[in-house]
Write a structure and sequence with these properties.
- InterPro entries: FimB/Mfa2/Mfa3 (IPR014941).
- Pfam families: Mfa2 (PF08842).
- Its main location: membrane.
- By secondary structure, this protein is mainly beta.
- It folds into two domains: about 140 residues, Immunoglobulin-like; about 130 residues, Immunoglobulin-like (Sandwich), CATH 2.60.40.
- The strands form six sheets. Strands 5, 6, 8, 11, 12 and 14 form a six-stranded antiparallel sheet that branches. A six-stranded mixed sheet has the order 19-20-15-23-24-25, with no helix packed on it. A four-stranded mixed sheet has the order 7-3-4-13, with no helix packed on it.
- Strand 24 and strand 25 form a beta hairpin.
- The protein starts with a strand and ends in a 5-residue tail after the last strand.
Length: about 325
């Protein structure tokens, strides 16, 4: 793929063609794709050369994310969609060109990755109507009560603003937009030690994060229960695994462990505030894999369990001596 770079000459100048050596680039033509007529530059193509990467705020490394397909949005300065397209994984690797139309002005590029329709109800964007604040997707309920995202990795990123001048004055202009794709999914493994094997247990995560807007914010009406299929391992530890969406302070997300036979909750706590963030080494902007281990004891041998210890990523965050 090639991209155009200003050679420093006056309008109607000749532009040099330079090779793009990085594989993680996508190229958008933001005006017509016809040839440029040098005595009338109104119809000259405008372009944004988009490069995406992934760099967490607490990591020195720049990584190449590998989302399962991309959704690409171009917004004007008012936050209204002007262009949209999809790119599959094969297209990304081959650096295919996507044709999108827009007038000159100030633009930002938003990219979502991994947005297949499995367990997601995806809204269809409408150019010149959709805004960044509009709903992008809502989790579908895998059963009547629970949603499941197991194995899915979803990414979001937005570029700084880029400016495309009036082609009637400057001719063809191609600018580069850099998009830092950050994962918005998290994997949570829950381990519960000390429960009797014969009992029937349910482990869920209740959250308000089940819907997200195009601009990367949690959307309204996203109340969701993430389900799991808890099972005992060979050592008698009850285990359950989840994939959940973005964790943000101020939006409740509760971990619930329940004895289904008795309809009694053994534990309910704020996943972010009282569990994950009690480990000083965890940063939700950088970490996306968590292991929470509970140690329980049936001290009266009557099925009334007490939580003795809670570990988060091998860090002791709570130690109890009384019944919760």
């Amino acid at each position: 793929m090639q991209w155009m770079k200003d050679s420093g000459q006056k309008p109607n100048y000749e532009r040099k063609i330079l090779p793009v050596v990085r594989l993680f680039s996508v190229f958008f033509l933001l005006c017509g794709i016809g040839s440029c007529i040098y005595d009338n530059t109104d119809d000259c193509p405008q372009g944004i050369h988009v490069r995406f990467y992934s760099k967490a705020p607490c990591s020195p490394d720049t990584l190449r994310p590998q989302p399962n397909g991309l959704e690409l949005y171009v917004f004007d300065r008012s936050g209204t969609l002007v262009s949209y397209c999809k790119a599959g994984t094969t297209e990304i690797e081959q650096q295919h060109v996507k044709a999108l139309s827009a007038e000159n002005g100030l633009f930002t590029v938003v990219i979502w990755g991994g947005m297949d329709n499995t367990n997601i109800s995806l809204e269809t964007p409408v150019p010149y109507i959709t805004t960044k604040g509009d709903l992008l997707f809502r989790l579908q309920q895998a059963t009547q009560t629970t949603a499941i995202l197991t194995g899915k990795r979803i990414y979001f990123g937005e570029s700084p603003a880029v400016y495309l001048p009036d082609p009637s004055e400057y001719g063809s202009v191609f600018e580069t937009a850099y998009v830092n794709l950050q994962e918005v999914t998290n994997r949570v493994k829950v381990e519960v030690e000390g429960l009797a094997r014969q009992d029937d247990y349910e482990i869920t995560i209740e959250s308000a994060n089940g819907a997200m807007n195009v601009g990367g914010f949690i959307g309204a009406g996203g109340e969701t229960i993430y389900g799991s299929s808890p099972a005992f391992d060979d050592d008698g530890v009850l285990q359950a695994e989840f994939t959940i969406l973005k964790l943000i302070p101020g939006y409740h997300t509760s971990l619930v462990i329940k004895d289904k036979q008795e309809g009694r909750e053994l534990y309910r706590g704020d996943l972010l505030g009282t569990l994950l963030l009690k480990n000083p080494e965890i940063n939700p902007e950088c970490d996306h894999d968590y292991v929470i281990r509970f140690t329980l004891a049936d001290q009266c041998k009557c099925g009334t369990y007490m939580i003795m210890k809670i570990w988060v990523n091998n860090w002791l965050v709570h130690s109890y001596s009384t019944d919760l």
